[in-house]
Design brief:
CATH topology of the largest domain: Cytochrome Bc1 Complex, Chain D, domain 2
CATH class of the largest domain: Mainly Alpha
Largest sheet: 2 strands, antiparallel
CATH architecture of the largest domain: Orthogonal Bundle
Number of domains: 2
Distance between the termini: 135 Å
Number of strands: 2
Structural class: mainly alpha
Length: 263
């Protein structure tokens, strides 16, 4: 202390103390600003989880359990991730009244904010697939239409039809049409495997290959019908049936007319 007290009357002591004080104030302000900026994000996520929990308890817990542990009529949601909730709730498949039937796409019950809150709550229970962002879903840039068509025919056409129109499965189930489905929901279905659909992990289909499949689906959706009526694009069965019905019907009508004239 005696060593320092000798310099307290030095003419450079005052400016030096002023500089030190300013540095201290600036550092304190920066730390406080960073804390203030991070607080709303933390609060928003915490608030979304709390809101999602309340929505879950009111609208989902009767089937999935109070702690999302599942039950006799509905599976556990622990570990399914935010993507699964966003797909099921965002497409209106959940909540559903009758769990014994296949969930059909319909108008969603919850709006976007409520769906996001539900997804945040379920995601907080255990790690799982996250909702893909816009940076992930840039299929126009990262996808390849020709590759996507080949991948679709090899992995998806046996259920969803070669043109993505959907098709029947066993035990009264069906694969829905992919026409008009948002790219986000297609990607989420690939990574979560809803209902009878298998999960296509990144080892099965890489993220780039998933985007190629989406790009091909969107190209098929926008493809014009140069040949006339599509008849559902469900293959030669409908075309053959139409030919037989119209052709045989016309022949029968002609035969009846000729018989009538002969009398």
């Amino acid at each position: 202390m005696k060593h320092l007290s000798r310099y307290r009357r030095h003419r450079a002591a005052a400016p030096l103390l002023l500089i030190i004080a300013l540095l201290g104030i600036g550092t304190t302000f920066n730390v406080a600003s960073a804390t203030i900026k991070s607080t709303p994000n933390t609060f928003s996520r915490s608030a979304a989880i709390d809101e999602g929990k309340q929505i879950f308890l009111k609208g989902c817990s009767s089937c999935h359990g109070l702690n999302a542990e599942g039950g006799a009529i509905a599976p556990s949601l622990i570990g399914v991730g935010a993507a699964s909730v966003d797909f099921q709730v965002g497409t209106g498949r959940m909540p559903m009244a009758d769990m014994s039937t296949q969930a059909a796409r319909k108008a969603p019950v919850y709006d976007a904010r409520e769906t996001a809150a539900l997804a945040a709550y379920v995601a907080s229970l255990a790690p799982g697939p996250a909702i893909p962002g816009d940076e992930v879903l840039n299929y126009e840039r990262d996808g390849n239409t020709a590759e996507g068509g080949e991948l679709f025919r090899n992995n998806c056409a046996m259920c969803h039809n070669f043109a993505g129109q959907g098709g029947a499965l066993t035990q009264g189930k069906y694969a829905p049409t992919l026409m008009g489905v948002e790219p986000k929901y297609i990607y989420e279905a690939l990574i979560t495997g809803p209902q009878s659909m298998p999960v296509f992990s990144d080892k099965t289909l890489t993220p780039e290959e998933k985007l190629s499949v989406i790009k091909w689906i969107k190209a098929a959706e926008a493809e014009p019908n140069l040949g006339g009526a599509t008849m559902g694009r469900i293959g030669p069965v409908t075309e053959g049936l139409l030919t037989w019905v119209l052709g045989l019907g016309l022949l029968i009508a002609v035969a009846v007319w000729l018989t009538t004239k002969a009398r």
